[in-house]
Task: inverse folding
C-alpha cells in the first residue's frame, strides 16, 4: 500500500537513493579531475628547475596521490551521506504515512489533493474525492477490543485499496474515516468504484483470532468542478457521507 503514499508531491521531490548516489559519483569525478590538475600544475611549477629525474618522479606522485586520496575521502563522506539520506527518507515518509494502515495520512492527502487541483484543468479532466466511514465501528471496539478494531481498520483499508485503480490516492483521515482522491474520465467510473468499495468492505469480513468480524462502510463522493477547491469538494463529500448514513448506511451518495 506504500504506492498510495509515494504519490505525494513532496515525496516525489526527494531524490531517490540511486539519483543521490549518481550525483555523488559525479561530484567525486569532478573533484578528482580538479585535484589532479591542481596537484600536477603545482608540482610542475615548483619542480620545473629540478633535475629531470626528480621532476618526473614528483609529477608521477602528484598524479597518483589524488587517485588514492580523493576516492578514499569521497567513499567515507559518501557512506555517511547515504546513511543520512536514508534516515531523511524514513523520517519524511513517517511524517506522511499513517502508522497503522501504512496509507497516506491526512497531511499527505491534503498536500497531494492541493497539488492535483493546482495542476489539473477541471474543465477537461475529472477529479473526485471520496470520504469513507466504517459503520458502527465503536461497536467493534466494544465487543472485541481495540486490538480487534485495529485489525478491522487495516483489513478495511486493504479492501479500499484493492477496489481502486493505481492512479487513485487512498488515505486514512483519522479514526475509522478514509479518503480517496480519484481521477476519472466517465461519471460511471465513480459509481463503479464507489459500489466496489462498499461491496468489498461489506462482503469480506475480517478474521481476528476465532472471530470473523463484519463491518460495512458508508461512502460520500464529491465531484470537482472548475473553480472548486479541495475544501469545497471535501465538504460536499462529507455532506454526502452524512446523507448515506441517514439513509441507512452501507451505501454511497454522490454529490455532483
Result:
Amino acid at each position: 500500500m506504500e504506492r498510495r503514499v509515494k504519490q505525494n508531491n513532496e515525496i516525489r521531490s526527494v531524490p531517490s537513493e540511486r539519483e543521490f548516489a549518481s550525483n555523488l559519483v559525479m561530484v567525486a569525478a569532478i573533484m578528482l579531475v580538479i585535484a589532479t590538475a591542481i596537484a600536477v600544475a603545482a608540482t610542475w611549477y615548483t619542480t620545473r628547475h629540478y633535475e629531470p629525474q626528480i621532476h618526473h618522479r614528483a609529477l608521477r606522485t602528484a598524479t597518483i596521490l589524488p587517485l588514492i586520496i580523493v576516492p578514499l575521502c569521497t567513499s567515507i563522506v559518501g557512506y555517511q551521506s547515504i546513511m543520512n539520506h536514508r534516515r531523511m527518507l524514513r523520517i519524511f515518509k513517517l511524517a506522511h504515512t499513517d502508522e497503522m494502515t501504512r496509507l497516506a495520512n491526512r497531511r499527505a492527502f491534503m498536500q497531494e489533493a492541493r497539488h492535483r487541483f493546482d495542476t489539473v484543468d477541471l474543465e477537461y479532466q475529472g477529479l473526485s474525492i471520496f470520504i469513507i466511514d466504517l459503520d458502527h465501528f465503536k461497536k467493534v471496539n466494544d465487543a472485541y477490543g481495540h486490538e480487534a478494531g485495529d485489525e478491522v481498520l487495516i483489513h478495511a483499508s486493504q479492501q479500499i485499496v484493492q477496489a481502486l485503480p493505481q492512479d487513485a490516492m487512498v488515505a486514512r483521515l483519522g479514526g475509522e474515516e478514509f479518503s480517496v482522491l480519484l481521477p476519472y474520465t466517465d461519471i460511471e467510473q465513480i459509481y463503479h468504484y464507489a459500489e466496489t468499495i462498499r461491496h468489498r468492505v461489506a462482503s469480506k469480513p475480517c478474521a481476528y483470532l476465532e472471530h470473523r468480524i463484519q463491518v460495512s462502510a458508508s461512502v460520500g463522493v464529491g465531484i470537482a468542478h472548475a473553480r472548486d477547491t479541495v475544501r469545497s469538494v471535501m465538504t460536499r463529500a462529507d455532506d454526502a457521507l452524512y446523507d448515506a448514513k441517514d439513509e441507512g448506511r452501507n451505501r454511497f451518495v454522490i454529490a455532483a
About this structure: The chain has two domains: 2-95, 106-255. Residues 126 and 185 are 6 Å apart (CA to CA). The chain is about 60% helix and 15% strand.
